[in-house]
Structure formats: C-alpha cells, structure tokens
Amino acid sequence: MALLFYGKDPNCPGNNCPAVFRDEETGDLYFQGETVVDLAMLARLSKDCGLEDSESVVKLPARMAEIIVEACRAGAIVR
Is residue 50 predicted with pLDDT exceeding 50? Predict the structure, then answer.
C-alpha cells in the first residue's frame, strides 16, 4: 500500500495534527483527526447511516476542506 500524504491542519503547530492521506492504488482516503466520543453526537451521526462497532468517526476542521477535495480529485476513478 502506497499512502500519499496530502496535508495537515495548517493551524496545527506540532506533529499530532489532523491529516489527510490517500491510497495510491485504490484511491481510498484516510483521515487522522480527533476521535468523536461524545455519545449524543455519535447517536446523531448514526441516525442517517448507522455506525458499526468496527467504525469510528473523526472530526477534521473545516479549514482542511481544500486538502480533502484535493485528495478526492486525485483519487477519482474516471470510467
């Protein structure tokens, strides 16, 4: 698996920052961010599509939107 690093939160001063990665082979995206543990928020999020025990939710700041879009465009599979 060849992971490509797309960027981290530009306002994060250290190394433990929200970040975006993409698998070069599959186009899958990987997000590093704050794990959501608030039970009310998790209940709300799982209302729309459920949340399996093997799944987790991470929060990324809105200021990372361009980084996320860039990673999505690079991984897009055109058919």
Answer: yes
Identify the sign of the CA torsion 30, 6, 60, 34: positive
Categorise residue 27: left if φ over 0, alpha if ψ from -120 to 50, beta otherwise: left
With CA atoms as reference, report the closest residue to 20 among 10, 31, 4, 33.
Answer: 31
Spatial separation of the C-alpha atoms in residues 26 and 49, rounded to whole Å: 23
**What would the mean pLDDT of 33-37 be, rounded to a whole number?**
96
Segment 54-76, tens digit of pLDDT: 999 999 999 999 999 999 988 66
DSSP secondary structure of 4-62:
EEEEE-TT--SSS--EEEEETTT--EEEE-EEP--HHHHHHHHHHH---TT---EE--G
